[in-house]
Amino acid sequence: GDSVTQMEGPVTLSEEAFLTINCTYTATGYPSLFWYVQYPGEGLQLLLKATKADDKGSNKGFEATYRKETTSFHLEKGSVQVSDSAVYFCALSDSSGGTSYGKLTFGQGTILTVHP
Amino acid sequence: SAVISQKPSRDICQRGTSLTIQCQVDSQVTMMFWYRQQPGQSLTLIATANQGSEATYESGFVIDKFPISRPNLTFSTLTVSNMSPEDSSIYLCSATQGTGNQPQHFGDGTRLSIL
Predict the structure, then answer these.
(1) Which residues of A are less than 8 Å from B1 in CB distance?
(2) How far is A77 from chain B (nearest CA, A)?
(3) Does position A99 have pLDDT exceeding 70, yes or no?
(4) Which chain B residues have any C-beta within 8 angstroms of a chain A C-beta?
(5) What distances in angstroms separate CA A100 from CA A93, B10, B40, B115, one per listed residue?
(6) Sign of CA dihedral A58, A84, B3, B43
(7) Could you say which DSSP state residue B97 is in?
(8) Which of A38-42, A82-86, B47-51 has the highest mean pLDDT?
(9) Helix (H, G, I), strand (E, B), or coil: what is residue B72?
(10) DSSP 3-state assignment of B35?
């Protein structure tokens, strides 16, 4: 079945540092890929998405590129802020029309802490 | 994007009781889902809530323990039945308005503690 693997956390950075959170996936269909963010005590918010190979999703300074050849969707931000401290989830959605159609498969989540 | 409201936002319940969680979407959506997030863990899909028919459950989840209703295109409920401390989790509702490449949008979750 489909699966998503994220880099081990937690990740601790100083403000204005460069961020990379690795995400790789395994899927039999043609997945769409997503990054979600969960702030303390809240639900999940969509951060960005990409629906086909070589698409780049971006939002709030975060970027991720859908790399089919390496089955990856790494999250990057050039300069993190204290307010970016949260848990980040990589996820895929099977778009191929099978029994898993529309369902999200999540990675294990990566805790990011940014210090001033 | 759809705005999703869940209630209650949190509850503390006694062992052996049941709790129903409500999920209201501000627009009609094609698919609604229920997830469980155990402490410090990722999300696990419980079931897909189907409008006008029985929910589709994932492996490890059964209707007797987690009955789900979806009477229309904007509302769903999840009941956690005969609760035990192992059911202490965050329960999240999500919805999507389109095809598999459309994102799911989430409510803020229900934080459930069982004593």
Answers:
(1) 46
(2) 21
(3) no
(4) 1, 4, 6, 31, 33, 41-43, 45, 48, 92, 94, 96, 99-109
(5) 8, 30, 25, 35
(6) positive
(7) S
(8) A82-86
(9) strand
(10) strand
Q: Over 90: is that where the pLDDT of A5 sits?
A: yes
Taking an 8 Å cut-off on Cβ atoms, the answer to whether A103 and B106 are in contact is no
Q: pLDDT per residue over B22-52, tens digit each?
A: 999 999 998 899 999 998 899 999 999 988 8
DSSP for chain A, please give it: --EEEE--S-EEEETT--EEE-EEEE-SS-EEEEEEEE-TTS-EEEEEEE-STT-EEEETTEEEE-BTTTTB--EEESS--GGG-EEEEEEEEE-SSSTTBT-EEE---EEEEEE-
The minimum CA-CA distance between A51 and chain B, rounded to whole Å, is: 6
Q: Which residues pair with A45 in a beta bridge?
A: A37
- Inspect the interface and report whether the beta carbons of B104 and A93 lie closer than 8 Å: yes
User: What's residue A98's pLDDT?
Assistant: 59
Query: Dihedral through CA A65, CA B2, CA B58, CA A70, nearest 10?
Result: 0
Tens-digit pLDDT profile for residues B67-103: 999 999 999 999 999 999 999 999 999 998 866 677 8
Give the Cα separation of B92 and B22 in Å (integer): 10
Q: Tell if the CB–CB gap between B45 and A49 is shorter than 8 Å.
A: no
